[in-house]
Amino acid sequence: MLLAFFKRIVAALRENAKKLLFCCIFMSAMNAAYNTMYQFGLDDFDVSTGAFTLSLTVVALPVIILVQRTKVEKKTWISSVIVLAGICVALSDVMSKDQVPGLALICAGCVLRAFYIIKLNEYARKYDPVALSALICLSGGIISFFFWLYVQPTTFFGISWSPVIIASLAIYSYFVVALAITLNIFAQRRTTAADSVIIYSLEIVFSVIWSAVLPASLITPVRLTPFIICGVICVVLGNLITIVNFGKNKNKQEVSGA
User: Fold this and answer.
1) Distance CA 114, CA 37 (A)
2) Which of 40, 78, 93, 107 lies 20 to 30 Å from 149, alpha-carbon distance?
3) What is the pLDDT along the chain (258 residues), one digit of tens a residue?
């Protein structure tokens, strides 16, 4: 991204270097922190269960917004409750006492991620999305390296390098990190943090689909139980309530559009 958008990033830095760099480092530190919590917390969960636990951000974000004395729409609360109900139903069939520490770690990460999404929504409106994305990726990589160095001092020399490992890192770094962050920043310029986190919960749906469809050589298979299916339906329903306009909101938009 630095090579492809060098001129654009330099222009953004010239305009407001100190504030932009501070925001990116701040965001990267939060990103690295909650991802580290997720990495350790997810050790006790499979793909679909892990996706459901990560979506607890949906519950944390409206509460944080309310604490900041910002109004939260009624439909956001309704969506959050429905998504939470889906998460609880899906986890009720698989949770055990041994997984509680991992769940607690993930919950802490979800609270931090909720705050991250709120700040990202704010910064996305202030700064160039491409520059913001590239600098978050760069500073996030540097900060994460020190986390990695603490956990595994051998770092790069401790990895059993193979074509599969290299391909996985390349795909993950491009699609899951760089491309996903950039698309999220562009999207969050045009929506609210509350709506964003509800839509992020759709990760559950895709995670369940991939874990059920893809071969065991690529991903740990997951058996679709009635609890998981019910949880996914609740997540989709919660998103529909957020995305679709009902009643007065719809009428207001029609009048303003006319």
Assistant:
1) 14
2) 107
3) 788 888 999 999 998 899 999 999 999 999 989 988 988 888 877 777 777 887 788 778 888 887 777 777 888 888 888 888 888 888 887 777 788 888 889 889 989 988 998 898 889 889 998 999 999 989 988 998 998 898 899 999 988 898 888 888 888 888 878 888 888 888 888 877 777 777 777 777 777 787 777 777 667 777 778 888 888 888 888 877 776 665 544 444 443 343
